[in-house]
Specification:
The protein has 191 residues and is α+β, with helices and mostly antiparallel strands. It has six helices and eight strands, in the order E-E-H-E-H-E-E-E-H-H-E-H-E-H. Helix content is 28%, strand content 15%. The strands form three sheets. A four-stranded mixed beta sheet has the order 3-6-5-4. Strands 1-2 form a two-stranded antiparallel ribbon. The protein has a two-stranded antiparallel ribbon with strand order 7-8.
Length: 191
């Protein structure tokens, strides 16, 4: 089966197993923060000696900082091999059965160009998100007016992408923008 062509959430792939959607939002009832919960979840997925690959695009610039902070707080005891580096960026890092990789350091193109690069469906979209808007976990619960253009990286967008941004903004003219809903949608489109 080609999993990307199967929409049913109850589909069980012969290679990947059941299709799942896992989210890790702040939860005051949880004893661990988001990154700790993700690391514990990923390590619990180990069924045999098959490694688990966590591929993140351009993570050396953003995502990895959160993971490395938690590893430093844990005393780096989970790291099982020396990281593979390119300059100051970490291309891959192994934590027990989990191999974290930064796909940008292997294929330095924008994530929105990946479907075209790998001849995948062009229906897959990266979209836009106000990266600068979320400064703390509390911002994830924001509901209200559409964020100011200052929170988006509009200078880096092509004309086509800028038109996508304008259409996205227009879709919230008569309804509130929810950071949690949009973050979840953006992250789903990210994988």
């Amino acid at each position: 089966y080609i999993c990307e062509n199967i929409e049913a959430l109850d589909h069980v792939c012969t290679f990947c197993g059941p299709k799942r959607l896992m989210t890790f939002f702040p939860d005051p009832n949880e004893p661990y923060n988001l990154i700790q919960r993700f690391i514990h979840y990923a390590m619990a997925q180990q069924k045999d000696t098959t490694p688990i690959y966590v591929i993140r695009h351009n993570s050396s610039k953003f995502d990895s900082a959160f993971i490395f902070k938690e590893l430093l707080l844990e005393g780096l005891t989970l790291i099982t091999e020396a990281p593979i580096r390119r300059g100051t960026s970490i291309m891959s890092l192994k934590l027990g059965p989990i191999m974290f990789r930064d796909s940008y350091l292997f294929s330095p193109v924008k994530l929105r160009k990946f479907p075209e690069l790998f001849n995948l469906s062009t229906d897959i979209r990266k979209g836009v998100f106000p990266y600068r808007f979320i400064k703390s976990e509390a911002d994830i619960d924001y509901k209200g007016d559409f964020p100011s253009e200052d929170y988006f990286e509009l200078a880096d967008l092509s004309n086509k992408e800028l038109n996508e941004y304008k259409a996205y903004k227009k879709s919230f003219e008569n309804k509130p923008w929810s950071a949690r809903d949009e973050l979840l949608s953006y992250c789903i489109d990210d994988v």
